[in-house]
Amino acid sequence: MMRSLWTAASGMTGQQFKIDTVSNNLANVNTTGFKKSRVDFQDLLYQTMRFAGTPVTAGAQVPTGIQVGHGVRPVATQKIFSQGTFQQTDNALDLVVEGNGFFQVLLPDGNVRYTRDGAFKKDSDGRIVTSDGFPLEPELIVPDDATDLSVGSDGTVSVMRPGLDAPENIGEIELAQFVNPAGLKSDGNNLFTATAASGEPNVGIPGVDGFGALAQGFLEMSNVQVVEEMVDMITAQRAYETNSKAIQASDDMLQTANNLRR
Asked: What pTM value is reported for the model?
């Protein structure tokens, strides 16, 4: 059997995987805080038929060898954590991180997850929570009689209350950073989990020591560029078609061999 059949098949499988990734990027073009993914490929094993440098006659050797590759495989899907565009909402609980850092979210099982989605709300207890009801970590509770809420660029949360002449500080928002954010595990629901590849989280104050500052009344949109994704989709589609042509050519050659007669 011709090895080109399997080689081209691996190419079709790889391009299909790239289309799947591009489709997910495009599907989340309007997802708050979404970070696009990129597929990295590697060539597969090579069959060496003759090694470079093999002696052929006295004082002479083969300058180049003979190797045949066996195709391609996806080796990584990397999250690209470039800054998304900002959308002004004028909502007091909408926050963006201008730079590096993740909001910390506490799940019901007690584990902490990380997100760039700053579309926060208040629950029935006055806690600042995500759209799924997961509270910020550390927990922040807005008093029932608060008439105004302000979040400083350093994460300081203040409210105005009746009878007070000055804002009351109710807590601070802390951010987390990672040595390798691309190593975070995507959990869905705009949440990430720390892994051994990402390293342990470094928690700090917004706007200090490399942490991004906070901006109130804005949301960070997806960093997906539709034009780039469409170009990637077209190139993947053409590469898929080209690999299918290679399979057809191999099949035609096998058919020709099968039709040989004495």
From this structure: 0.88
